[in-house]
Batch of 4 targets.
Target 1
Amino acid sequence: MQLDFFPSKTLTFYLAKLFIVRIAAVLVMLVLVLLMLDLLASTGDILAAEGNGQGELLIYAGLRGPQLMAQFLPYSVLLATILTLLVLNQNSEVIAMKAAGLSAHQILAPLLLTALAVSAVSFLFNERVVTRATATLKAWEASDYGVIPASDDARSNLYLTDGENVLSAASLSGTGADIVMRGVTWYRRGPDGLIVEQIRADRATFANPGWQLTDARRFTVENAGLRTVPQITVAPQVTPDQVDLTSVDPDAQSFFELSQSIDAYEEAGRSTSTLRARWWHKLSGPLSAFLMPLLGGIAAFGLARSGALFVRALIGMALGFAYFVIDNAALAMGSFGGYPPFLAAWAPFLLFLLIGETVLVRTEE
């Protein structure tokens, strides 16, 4: 039995079933509670937009839900690990398994395999659902919950310089010459650097060169005059390539889309440290679910009657939450250039993999 990494087929399926049911239950509980709190904070802003009602609240929940699921899935795996192992320990099932000759690693093996499958599903879910929901939600928020943008290529918060002037847009969609900006503002500066003119429009398209604003509102500082202009072209120095590069949002792009954005940045001679750190984290982030059974595995062992079982559960929770804190800190440092991108994304994972394995071996093997 010691030579087999997994226990018997029956026991493997039994443990995996217990684990996956608890992961789903904890995840649903966390997402529902957090989504309710998020809706309480955002409902006023959503309903403030003209024409919005219950349907828009449901749309918001549908876009925010995938984000919460992706963010808190590793937490759910950690809590499900501790709950599963506590119940097994209290029912003396762990003692029975160890008496049958199973090692600590063999007891945890079905949980690790299940967590690895959850990590794979999480990666695919992030690629196909979360990135699109994030792009749409950010663009919708940037337009003050007005017109809901298309989800395929929606982006938000553009800010570019046109010589001494400034062009900004709340949201945009499309690529290249087909880019359409919404919530556009162009600021013209004088020789002293102060803004002397402001032009706002709901929509702008590429005019080659420049960007054509339709039904623009033109405000001149000199005479405080405001007038409507049917069409006007601004920002001739801003090209579609610049817009595409500036509007890259790592959270709203899939793994392969972000790879193309990084290549474009490198061709333009721009720094890619921030994007590369987030690119690596698209792999290490979902894989963190695989790490949770190892960090929470300490809760499986120790006598339930000894009084140390609760302490072991706390240690497992502390290790898991410490990982998330250090992972976020390392990713932030990588975004600012403090760590190399690969180290920022993978160092916390490898560090806690060694810590979890060391704790397990020292206490149980």
Target 2
Amino acid sequence: MKSTYRVLIIEDSLPLANLYKQYLANEPIELACAETGQAALDYLQESTPHLILLDLKLPDMPGEEILQWIKKQGLPSSVIIVTSHGTLNTAVDLMRQGAADFLEKPVSAERLKTTIKNQLEHARLQGLVEDLQSSFERHTYQGFIGASLPMQNVYRIIDSAAPSKATVFITGESGTGKEVCAEAIHNQSPRAGEAFVALNCGAIPHDLMESEIFGHVKGAFTGASNDRKGAAAQANGGTLFLDEICEMDLELQKKLLRFIQTGRYQKVGASKEETVDIRFLCATNRDPMKEVAEGRFREDLYYRLHVVPLAMPPLRERGDDILSIATSFLVSYAKEEGKQFTRFSPEAEVVLRHYPWPGNVRQLQNVVRNVVVLHDGEAVTIKQLPPPLNETLSDQEIRSITQTMKPEPTSSGFGEETSSEEVTPGSDIRPLSEIEREAIQKTIAYCDGNVLKAAVLLQISPSTLYRKKQAWETDEA
């Protein structure tokens, strides 16, 4: 245990409170005492202990009220009830209300120390689990939706690269969220309070691109009636994101390289240089090495920019993220359009999950918008999906895939037994989802229903296990 653990003793008997202090005198914990319920509440409004020893009989209020207040406020403190007025039924009822343990007076020194050590260790492990969940299994992150392994990797790279000034070279197919990624890096960086300026090098004519980046002075070219700030000046102190950088003209690439190396640039038509402090991010949907090999992208610029590579995964490789993203779009657009949609039918989910999504998240967004604008209802059906999604799979294929998603018969204790189609007699081949579910259910049963222990044995995140378990229970309902 660490000396940073704090324990609050709520006990109206001063001799008993002093006895507990003696029991715990050599333990590396910080103790505080409260003789009344109100004194305890005053303390808890100022500080949050890791653990609370709570007497049920207090002079001004019952201990149950304090327990209820603690749970209502959402305090993470573990509560151990200590009372001489306890029964088994009382203990069970208090545990249901949120107490972590129940001790009956008189309490021996060894019993008290062991119980406190166990609860503090549990709190420590729970904190580690929550830290792991926040670090390794985030379901949303800086504008992204998705908990798949490829996206967890993206989140970790962003976390690591954001504090630096190093250039991040983002690659990925069109529609995978490269600009969202660039904004996430900026928002996680020390420059978050400064400007984020994005330029799409493929959408601006080549003869105007230099002016867009560096700006121009009045009379620099026909139509330049005023001085104009470029993206470089606008992004000073912040981040400049150059999207589709492989589309940039070779001559301008040379000027860009010098700008990145020195931080100095010259407006079109100007005679003096200006200096800025910029963090560069860039992206392309092409293979940059192929562009270098074919002479369309400068090799020296590539190596200058390619400091931290970050590859955005295509939607088809993101598993159940497809359904999470689609549902988020559906709920948002339904609210916007005044429609009733809240979910997709199981058959529609199968189609969404198995469609290759060549246009990635952008295409998915347009598909959902199409459905919401043209239709209404509670659940989106296959017929409401636009072509080619409503033609992707035959009815027989959809039934076959849906059948493999149904629960296997189980005796693990967290769902009623249901039947599903048997594998073809004599065949050893089974859907991976069935094998995974069977392994998880057997492990949870082996651990007597303890999901945390099962997660440790299976070497996966507890939150992943809870999510899968919840999804199966929903299917069985």
Target 3
Amino acid sequence: MGGEPLEAAGLAVGVVDDHPVVVEGVRTWLERDARARVAHVADTVEGIPENLDVLILDLNLHGRLVLDEVADLASCAQRVITFSQFTEPEMVLAAIEAGACEFVAKNEGRAHLLEAVLSVADDRPYVTPTAAGVLACDRRPEAARLSERERTALLWWFQSMSKRSVARRMGVSVHTVEMYIKRARVKYAQAGRPAPTKADMLARAIEDGLITPEEVVGYRSAAAGR
């Protein structure tokens, strides 16, 4: 199954699944709403267009789990919704920790998938019943599960670096840095710890041990002496 050309209107959604029946079902679900269209279809993560608004990704492709691919896509600021029949708590948590913006079970239907697509594209939190049940039963500390790239962007941003400076240091665009920060903010909201401002985000990061107050002050002092 190869990639299909992008069209021009609405949210551009990619669907990667190795079952054609599932792909056609998702296409039918989404394209009943004028706000979304399927702009790319494939059965592998190779050759995914960079300008997709959202990517719906089956976690099991050709008999292989693709959690590493989720992390790679998330590190490139792709908004990924993992879409799977595997709903074991460890699988849901692993997908979210890898950088997926949302987890949708294949049995949750059109309404949840569409709402997840619209919310993720707008960088708003949305938690499906499956993900909500898993997160509610997770007894680990309520830290937002940030990807490594999200943590790096936040750390440097907190150290009084402009987003442009962070982007230059990370070797990405300013848009990508903004995506990392927005996605981290969504994850804090999903964990029940909203952080609408930079000060709130810094407080959450200190609570979670991502950064210490000394690191922030130390960087500012060093910068001031230059």
Target 4
Amino acid sequence: MRLLELLLPSTLETLYMVSISILFTIIIGLPLGVLLVVTEETTILPNKFINTILSWIVNIGRSVPFVILMIAVTPFTRFIVGTSIGTNAAIVPLIFASIPFFARIVESALKELPPGIIEAAHAMGTPPKLIILRVMIPEALSQLILGTTITLIAQIGYSAMAGIIGGGGLGDLAIRFGYQRSQNDVLFASVLVLICLVMLIQFCGNKLSNYYNKK
């Protein structure tokens, strides 16, 4: 009973962190990934300068280990949420870590589209905005869903690491009770719940991706 009382709020905290962070990751990361594709020299909005700058930003963001990133964005985290510890504070580095990761996934998904589809739409005089919204994203939707699934799973791992700085969630529970107090049952239960969350997200993501792929 006591174990359940510990696991339930920590699981809800993890789900809260991941839900908010994936929302902002998609809002920012999806347009960023699209821009990485459409600003290349051979695409619909070629702009080498913008493409180079965005690529550098994404590469730098992806190269910083999450533990270091949590510390590096601490001043910004305090400015946004008023504190550098707790569940809300952990969301900020989660978003920073996920955006470049997701942007590259979006870029990869869009680059797998047959060039003829985009060229045909462009030849018909379709504006670039409509090509992106009505051709590129719908055609790549199945892969984008898989990419979102991968990002969600990565965020669960990141959220567990956020427990190092008291970020809340299952990672924090495993560290405070399982490791520091040597309560192995709490540690193993926390890991088991994390595994179940990952498997559930992967299952749902695969089903949803297959559904849109068949359409």
